Recover the amino acids of this structure.
């Protein structure tokens, strides 16, 4: 390890907090010194070793690193201006991104709010739901209906609709808004009878609470950080019907699932929500940006509320650099046969991970789109599993009882084989 690397890591350990990591007893971090394509270059004790990034930097870097089109978009916009307030001003990058989002999402979703992170977009969506209900004369409707097993972010309203027991925010019970939780949807391959039973239970919960419910929020088709849990598309239609029956707004949180990850460009193409949140892969992992899309009907309802406006306005709303690179990322995605690419990744993950079912301690192996998951019957030893994956040439970030991967779409077949081997090494070590 070089002296410079040692100094960097020493300062990091002494002063920098990392996500869900103790400040006083931090787990090890690895120093990244470069990145290209689907690979990260690790410094410190790894002496510049390249590893396949199985995480896409938490599911965002779908085009990998140092993509020439995205790099060029950043440089070109920086040469004009990097930021300008969105209050009272506008600019071409925001308009161009808005036009792309409207064009690529279901037709009723024509109004776009540009937020600055996924969690913020969910906060904005929930504000929209509440303001809409006030605007249409139902101010007593203040609670959200959701399902167990979900995760929607780390800010306060987001935590309130995240699984209150199995999620990461149980310690905040009693301080958060009290939402209404229904059972987790059945597994993706569940028989029709299980789906029907779940639907009956969900309808019963909605019937009991309809007078106080303002909306429904779910991660469609795949619950992400709550457990990497895929569920049947038929459940989405049930949610749509319940929302329509009771005058609720249906919110789809596609921050993790959008831009092709599940094999659908957006799951909202299957069932159209009233409000759609997107983020993560929106900028190809280059900058933080999210968007909330909604309908004219919702916009009119919000405008009829006492404020007449959406009560939210982030400083970096519509950041030009982020908007420019987001448009470039969308163009790269739509300029290729992304569905075939995602399908190919999914097929290789499915076949490659299938033998892990026979390992001791493995409870389940599942795939959906470009997502591969191995669920253990115990919590993963994250340090041991991570070390084993790196030794196999792969970067993974297991959590709870899951070793999983969401690789960049630019990953090669050889890199996919390395990724599968790394997942196996992590499972055996964890």
């Amino acid at each position: 390890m070089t002296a410079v690397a040692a100094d960097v890591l020493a300062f990091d350990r002494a002063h920098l907090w990392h996500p869900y990591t103790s400040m006083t007893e931090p787990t090890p971090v690895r120093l990244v010194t470069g990145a290209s394509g689907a690979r990260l270059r690790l410094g410190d004790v790894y002496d510049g070793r390249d590893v396949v990034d199985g995480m896409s930097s938490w599911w965002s870097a779908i085009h990998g690193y140092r993509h020439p089109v995205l790099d060029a978009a950043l440089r070109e916009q920086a040469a004009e201006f990097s930021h300008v307030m969105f209050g009272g001003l506008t600019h071409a990058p925001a308009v161009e991104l808005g036009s792309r989002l409207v064009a690529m999402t279901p037709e009723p979703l024509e109004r776009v709010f540009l937020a600055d992170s996924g969690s913020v977009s969910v906060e904005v969506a929930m504000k929209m739901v509440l303001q809409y209900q006030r605007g249409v004369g139902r101010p007593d409707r203040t609670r959200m209906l959701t399902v167990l097993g979900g995760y929607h972010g780390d800010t306060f309203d987001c935590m309130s609709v995240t699984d209150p027991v199995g999620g990461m925010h149980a310690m905040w019970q009693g301080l958060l808004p009290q939402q209404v939780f229904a059972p987790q949807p059945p597994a993706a391959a569940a028989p029709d009878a299980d789906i029907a039973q779940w639907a009956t239970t969900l309808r019963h919960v909605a019937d009991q609470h309809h007078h106080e419910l303002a909306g429904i929020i779910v991660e469609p088709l795949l619950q992400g950080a709550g457990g990497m849990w895929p569920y049947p598309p038929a459940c989405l239609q049930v949610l749509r019907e319940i929302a329509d029956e009771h005058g609720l707004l249906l919110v789809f949180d596609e921050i993790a699932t959008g831009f092709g990850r599940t094999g659908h460009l957006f799951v909202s193409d299957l069932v159209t929500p009233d409000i759609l949140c997107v983020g993560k892969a929106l900028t190809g992992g280059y900058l933080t940006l999210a968007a909330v899309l909604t309908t004219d009907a919702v916009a009119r309802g919000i405008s009829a509320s006492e404020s007449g406006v959406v009560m939210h306005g982030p400083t970096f709303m519509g950041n030009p650099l982020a908007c420019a690179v987001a448009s470039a990322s969308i163009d790269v995605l739509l300029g290729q046969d992304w569905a075939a690419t995602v399908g190919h990744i999914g097929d290789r993950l499915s076949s490659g991970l299938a033998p892990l079912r026979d390992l001791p301690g493995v409870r389940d192996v599942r795939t959906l789109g470009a997502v591969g998951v191995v669920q253990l019957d115990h919590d993963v030893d994250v340090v041991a599993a991570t070390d084993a994956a790196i030794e196999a040439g792969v970067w993974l970030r297991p959590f709870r009882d899951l070793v999983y991967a969401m690789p960049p779409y630019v990953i090669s077949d050889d890199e996919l084989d390395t990724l599968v081997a790394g997942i196996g090494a992590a499972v055996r070590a964890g």
